[in-house]
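User: Structure with flavin-adenine dinucleotide, tokens only please.
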Amino acid sequence: MAEWDVVVVGAGLAGSTAALFSARHGRSTLVVDAGLVPGGQMFNITRIEDFPGFPQGVAGYDLCPMLQEQAAAAGAEFRAGTVEALTATETGWSVTGLDEPVEARAAIVATGSTPRRLGIPGEERLLGHGISHCASCDGPIYRGRAVAVIGGGDSALLETLELVDHVASITVFVRDRALRGQHTYASRVEAAEKVTLAFDTVVEEILGEDAVTGVRTRSVATGETADVEAAAVFPYIGSEPQTALLAPHVALDPDGHVPTDVWMRTEVPGLLVAGEVRAGSAAQAVTVSGDGATAAIAADRYLATSAWAPVETSVAG
Ligand SMILES: Cc1cc2nc3c(=O)[nH]c(=O)nc-3n(C[C@H](O)[C@H](O)[C@H](O)COP(=O)(O)OP(=O)(O)OC[C@H]3O[C@@H](n4cnc5c(N)ncnc54)[C@H](O)[C@@H]3O)c2cc1C
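Assistant:
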């Protein structure tokens, strides 16, 4: 059985950065990711503009492979596979679900999150038939047509700006009275001629039998309903943390995230988390990367000292 110093589950920005730092600290580090291509949510994003060091912005499909190359060059090993369980052993953690059993002395779980479902009629039936969570992947399919976006945060705004290059018109349905996302994105969305902002409006149903034909909306203010034509719907109403591996070991907060101290340590010695899965994550590329680096440094110290004080707010250098 292969035994590693550190196993990292998830090769999004958090996990890949954890791998980079862990390997650079001289720890034998295995990274496992369930995706066809490692990179997590960031991989499909055409351009993020707020990652430090890239004044012109950077595509996720450029940034993620660069980071993985850097981590691999430092000595981390990347492997494809879905981790089904983490089990505590006398010396650390046993990983199941891979081709061969794997053990590690410390585990960093960076399993991220998946898009939150709307939970409305039509969603189950039409997912993949006009409902999409990836504007850069699916926007070009709807060239010249009207589409809908649901949500008013950063993800919704960024994806709306991506769709502007492809489709004829976009209606953005926002439950609240204002956009919540960054001013930079919000002002560009507001200025875009193709975009109509429908505030105070909830989408109650996705319409269409075999493919999306529109949405049924309700005004929060008046209760009036309306059917609006759309060839596709792009919902961005938040995300659900992927905590299945963690739930057997740690208590989750009311939103389903994992509480940690500032070093990304959970209540269980040798078990750390990083990125969107943790409580209080700012859910930005740069912050999840910071989590990954922090977790790797904390894991290194734990392996060196066996000390674990998860309620501390800082660790002496
Ligand atoms: C549309 C959109 C636009 C965004 N725009 C911006 C932006 O402009 N700027 C910005 O800073 N941030 C942006 N973000 C947010 C940013 O992309 C995320 O905060 C960040 O990518 C999360 O990284 P993560 O590593 O925590 O998780 P994820 O990227 O979710 O990675 C988790 C990884 O874990 C893997 N995994 C899960 N479970 C298992 C398992 N059991 N076994 C093995 N592997 C597993 C998954 O395959 C995945 O690769 C955007 C997000 C979205 C969705």
